[in-house]
C-alpha cells in the first residue's frame, strides 16, 4: 500500500529541503518536496528527486567486497569486519594508531554521520584531514571580521533595495535563493550578479558583471574608493563599531583606479553604479564559495565584507554579507558525540594535499586508510597524485553505495545505506536555520548497512563496544542536549518534521561582534599563524594574468558545481557521457573552436579531453569544466587543479588554475 512520509534531503547543499516520500511495499517510489516546509515550500531539485534512483539503482553495491588478485570478490560481513578489525589491531601494535588515515568529506549532512570521529577517537586517535575543499578561506575570513559566519534569514531579502549575488550560482546550487531572486525582481528590487560566467543566475540579473577570476577583492576596493569620494561611508558605524579602519583607509588610497579597471575587467562606470547600490541600501550581498577557492580567497571575502561594513549594511534588516551560517551547526552538541577525550594520539594532514603527505610521511607511514562520506579520487585536487597516493597504501577501506573512482582503488568496500534506509536529522550551516527529520522508511538494499552499524560492529571487535552501545535515538538525543533547554527535542523534530533553531534572523543587530575587540575588525586582533597577514589587503591569485605561468597557460579554468549532480554523486546515473568544456567567445575565436569540437585542456599537472561549448558573455579569459565526473566516465577536472591552499583558513584553491586548450589530435585528423 502506498504511504506518504515526511523526510529530508541529506545532500551537502545550501537548501536542506524538506521531503515528502512515497513508499510502496518497502520501496521508495517517489521523492517530492514537503509543501509545509517554511523555507523550501515543496520545491526541490532533480538531485533531491534522484535520491529515489540512487536508492533503487541496480548499480548499488549490496555486499561487502574484498580485492583479491586485483578483482573484487563478495564476502560476508563477518569476514570483512573480522579482517578489517584484525588489521586495525596489528597496525596499532606495530606502527601506532596514526598509521591509520581517516579521509572523509561531507557528502551527507546527517548528525549521526559525525560518529566516524567517535570511532577513531576511541581507537586511540588517527591521522585526520583538516581544512576544507569547499569554504575554508571564507569562513576564516568572516571569523576574522565578525567573529563568526552568520547569514540573514532567507526572507530578509525582501527588506532589501538592492541584492548583489557575488559568485553564487543560485539557479543551480541554491534554488530557494533563486526563487527569492525571481520574487524580489518582481517587487522591483534590483539584482546584480558578479561572476566570470553568464549562467542561469546571471541571466536573471538586472546588471551582470563579468569579473576576471580571482580579482573580486580589487573590485570591492574600487567600490570603496568611489564611496569615499561620494562621502557615502557609514561614518558613525565605522567610528563606534569597527577596529583598524584608518590603516585600511590609507591602504586603499594607494591602489589606483586604473589598476582596478585593468585587472578586474570592470569599467569605472560600472564601479560607480555598484557604489551607488551599496550607498543607497539596504543592500544585501550573497557571497558564493567559488570566488574564495583561490590562494587569495580569504582576503577576497574580507574585502567584500569590508565593503558591506563601510557602506553601513551590517546588522540591519535587508543588509548582510551572507556567506556561511555557522550558528546552525553550533546549536548542536556535536562534541558530546565525538568523545574527543579518548583520543590519545593525533596527526593532521591538510585535506587538499593529503596525497603529498601520504606519499612522504614516514613517522609513522600511512598503512591503512578509511574513506567515509567522500570520494577523494574525484573530488580532491591534483587527481594523478591522489591516485598514486591511495594506490600506495597497503589497506584501503571505502564505505560507499557505488563503485566510485575511490572504491575501485579499495581493498575492502563496505556497502552503506541511503538516506531513506536509516534514521537521522539533517541540517546545513549555509542558508536557513531549520533542522529536518529523516526517518528510516525502507529496509536497506541487499546487505547494505548504516555507517553507524559499521562503526558499532568494528568497535565491538576492537574492545570498545560499550562506547557504541546506544541506539540511533539515544545518539540523536546526545547531539540535541544543548537544545533541550530551548524546547527543541527529538520528539518535537520527529513530530513536526522540521524545527527552526534559535538563531537570529538578522546577525550582529546589536553591533556587538564576536571578535577579540568586540568590534568589526578591518585588521584582525586574532593570533596569526606563520605567513598570515592580519591587515586587510589585496593579493593576486597564485595563477593569474600577472604570473609568469600565464605566458605558457593563458586561460583561467573554473570547475563549478554540476547542475544535475551533487558533486560526484549522480554522473553514473545520468545519460551524460561527454565532458563539456565551456569556453568564452574570445577563446573560441583565438583558437578557432566551435561548438562540439573535441579539445584537450592541459597544464603541468595533467590533461582532460572534452567537447567545446561556447559560453556567451563570459569573461574573455575563462574556461569551465563542471566538477564531479568520474574517471571512467571521461575523467575529473581535478586532474588539472592545484593542491595548494588559501592564504588563510586552510581552504582549497581549485579555481586558481591556469590552462591552455587545443584541438585534439583525433579532431585534427578528421579535418
Ligand atoms: N547543483 C548543485 N548544487 C550544489 C552542489 C552541487 O554539487 N551541485 N554543491 C553544494 C555545495 S557542497 C556547495 S559548496 C555549494 C556551492 O555553491 P556556489 O558557490 O554557488 O557554487 P560553486 O560552484 O562552488 O561556485 C561557483 C560560482 O563561483 C563563480 N566563480 C568562480 N570564480 C569566481 C571569481 O573569481 N569571482 C566571482 N565573482 N565568481 C567566481 C563561478 O563562475 C560559479 O558561478 O553548492 C551546493 N549546491
Ligand atoms: N575542481 C573542483 N573540485 C571540488 C569542488 C569544485 O568546485 N571544483 N568543490 C569542492 C566541494 S565544495 C566539496 S563540498 C567537495 C565534495 O566532495 P565529496 O563530499 O567527496 O563529494 P560527493 O560526490 O558529494 O560525495 C562523495 C561520496 O560520498 C558517498 N556517500 C553519500 N552518502 C553517504 C553516506 O551516508 N555514507 C557514506 N559513507 N558515503 C556516502 C557518495 O556515494 C559519494 O561517492 O568537493 C570539492 N571538490
Ligand atoms: S540537493 Fe539541495 S535543492 Fe536539491 S533537494 Fe536537496 S537540499 Fe533541496
Ligand atoms: Mo561544498
TrEMBL record:
A Pfam short name: Molybdopterin
Q: Does the keyword Chloroplast apply?
A: no
Looking up Gene3D superfamilies in the UniProt record yields: 2.40.40.20, 3.40.50.740, ADC-like domains, Dimethylsulfoxide Reductase, domain 2, Formate dehydrogenase/DMSO reductase
> Which prosthetic group or cofactor does it need?
Mo-bis(molybdopterin guanine dinucleotide)
- The 4Fe-4S Mo/W bis-MGD-type domain covers 2-59
Listed SMART domains: Molybdop_Fe4S4
Swiss-Prot/TrEMBL keywords: Iron, Iron-sulfur, Metal-binding, Molybdenum, Oxidoreductase
Question: Where would one find the signal peptide in this protein?
Answer: none
> Matching SUPFAM superfamilies, A to Z?
ADC-like, Formate dehydrogenase/DMSO reductase, domains 1-3
Single annotated GO MF: molybdopterin cofactor binding
Family as reported in the entry's similarity comment? Belongs to the prokaryotic molybdopterin-containing oxidoreductase family.
Q: Which PANTHER family match?
A: OXIDOREDUCTASE YYAE-RELATED, TRIMETHYLAMINE-N-OXIDE REDUCTASE
This protein is called: Oxidoreductase
Organism of origin is: Anaerobacillus alkaliphilus
The root-end lineage is: Bacteria, Bacillati, Bacillota, Bacilli, Bacillales
Amino acid at each position: 500500500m502506498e504511504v506518504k512520509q515526511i523526510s529530508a534531503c541529506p545532500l551537502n547543499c545550501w537548501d536542506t529541503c524538506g521531503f515528502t516520500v512515497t513508499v510502496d511495499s518497502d520501496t521508495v517510489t517517489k521523492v517530492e518536496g514537503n509543501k509545509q516546509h517554511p523555507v523550501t515550500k515543496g520545491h526541490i531539485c532533480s538531485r533531491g528527486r534522484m535520491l529515489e534512483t540512487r536508492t533503487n539503482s541496480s548499480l548499488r553495491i549490496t555486499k561487502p567486497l574484498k580485492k583479491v588478485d586485483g578483482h573484487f570478490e563478495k564476502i560476508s560481513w563477518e569476514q570483512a569486519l573480522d579482517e578489517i578489525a584484525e588489521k586495525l589491531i596489528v597496525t596499532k601494535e606495530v606502527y601506532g594508531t596514526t598509521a591509520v588515515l581517516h579521509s572523509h568529506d561531507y557528502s551527507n549532512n546527517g548528525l549521526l554521520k559525525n560518529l566516524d570521529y567517535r570511532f577513531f577517537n576511541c581507537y586511540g586517535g588517527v591521522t585526520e584531514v583538516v581544512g576544507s575543499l569547499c569554504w575554508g578561506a571564507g569562513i576564516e575570513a568572516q571569523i576574522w571580521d565578525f567573529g563568526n559566519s552568520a547569514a540573514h534569514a532567507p526572507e530578509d531579502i525582501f527588506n532589501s533595495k538592492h541584492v548583489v549575488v557575488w559568485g553564487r550560482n543560485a539557479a543551480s546550487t541554491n534554488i530557494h535563493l533563486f526563487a527569492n531572486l525571481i520574487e524580489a525582481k518582481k517587487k522591483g528590487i534590483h539584482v546584480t550578479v558578479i561572476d566570470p560566467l553568464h549562467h542561469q543566475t546571471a541571466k536573471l540579473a538586472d546588471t551582470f558583471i563579468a569579473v576576471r577570476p580571482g580579482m573580486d577583492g580589487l573590485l570591492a576596493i574600487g567600490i570603496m574608493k568611489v564611496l569615499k569620494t561620494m562621502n557615502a561611508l557609514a561614518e558613525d558605524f565605522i567610528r563606534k563599531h569597527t577596529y583598524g579602519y584608518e590603516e585600511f583607509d590609507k591602504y586603499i588610497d594607494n591602489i589606483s583606479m586604473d589598476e582596478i579597471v585593468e585587472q578586474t575587467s570592470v569599467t569605472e562606470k560600472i564601479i560607480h553604479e555598484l557604489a551607488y547600490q551599496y550607498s543607497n541600501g539596504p543592500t544585501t550581498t550573497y557571497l558564493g564559495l567559488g570566488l574564495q577557492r583561490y590562494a587569495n580567497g580569504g582576503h577576497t571575502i574580507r574585502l567584500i565584507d569590508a565593503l558591506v561594513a563601510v557602506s553601513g549594511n551590517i546588522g540591519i534588516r535587508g543588509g548582510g554579507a551572507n556567506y556561511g551560517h555557522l550558528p546552525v551547526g553550533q546549536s548542536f552538541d556535536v562534541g558530546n558525540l565525538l568523545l574527543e577525550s579518548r583520543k590519545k594520539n593525533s596527526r593532521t594532514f591538510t585535506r587538499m594535499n593529503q596525497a603529498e603527505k601520504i606519499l612522504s610521511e614516514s613517522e609513522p607511514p600511512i598503512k591503512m586508510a578509511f574513506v567515509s562520506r567522500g570520494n577523494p579520487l574525484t573530488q580532491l585536487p591534483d587527481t594523478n597524485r591522489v591516485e598514486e597516493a591511495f594506490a600506495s597504501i597497503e589497506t584501503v577501506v571505502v564505505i560507499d553505495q557505488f563503485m566510485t573512482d575511490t572504491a575501485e582503488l579499495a581493498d575492502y568496500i563496505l556497502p552503506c545505506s541511503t538516506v531513506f534506509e536509516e534514521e537521522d536529522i539533517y541540517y546545513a550551516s549555509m542558508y536557513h536555520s531549520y533542522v529536518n527529520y529523516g526517518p528510516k522508511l525502507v529496509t536497506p538494499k541487499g546487505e547494505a548497512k548504516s555507517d553507524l552499524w559499521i562503526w558499532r560492529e568494528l568497535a565491538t571487535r576492537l574492545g570498545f563496544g560499550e562506547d557504541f552501545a546506544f541506539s540511533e535515538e539515544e545518539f540523536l538525543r546526545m547531539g540535541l542536549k544543548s537544545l533541550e533547554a530551548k524546547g527543541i527535542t527529538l520528539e518535537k523534530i520527529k513530530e513536526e518534521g522540521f524545527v527552526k533553531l534559535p538563531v537570529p534572523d538578522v546577525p550582529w543587530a546589536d553591533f556587538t561582534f564576536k571578535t577579540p575587540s568586540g568590534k568589526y575588525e578591518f585588521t584582525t586582533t586574532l593570533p596569526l599563524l606563520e605567513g598570515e597577514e592580519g591587515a586587510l589587503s589585496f593579493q593576486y591569485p597564485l595563477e593569474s594574468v600577472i604570473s609568469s605561468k600565464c605566458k605558457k597557460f593563458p586561460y583561467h579554468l573554473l570547475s563549478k558545481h554540476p547542475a544535475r549532480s551533487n558533486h560526484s554523486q549522480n554522473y553514473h546515473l545520468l545519460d551524460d557521457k561527454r565532458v563539456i568544456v565551456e569556453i568564452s567567445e574570445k577563446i573560441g575565436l583565438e583558437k578557432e573552436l566551435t561548438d562540439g569540437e573535441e579539445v584537450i585542456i592541459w597544464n603541468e599537472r595533467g590533461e582532460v579531453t572534452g567537447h567545446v561549448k561556447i559560453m556567451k558573455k563570459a569573461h574573455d579569459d575563462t574556461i569551465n569544466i563542471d566538477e564531479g565526473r568520474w574517471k571512467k566516465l571521461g575523467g575529473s577536472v581535478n586532474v588539472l587543479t592545484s593542491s595548494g591552499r588559501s592564504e588563510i583558513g586552510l581552504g582549497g584553491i581549485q579555481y586558481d588554475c591556469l590552462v591552455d586548450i587545443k584541438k585534439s589530435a583525433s579532431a585534427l585528423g578528421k579535418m
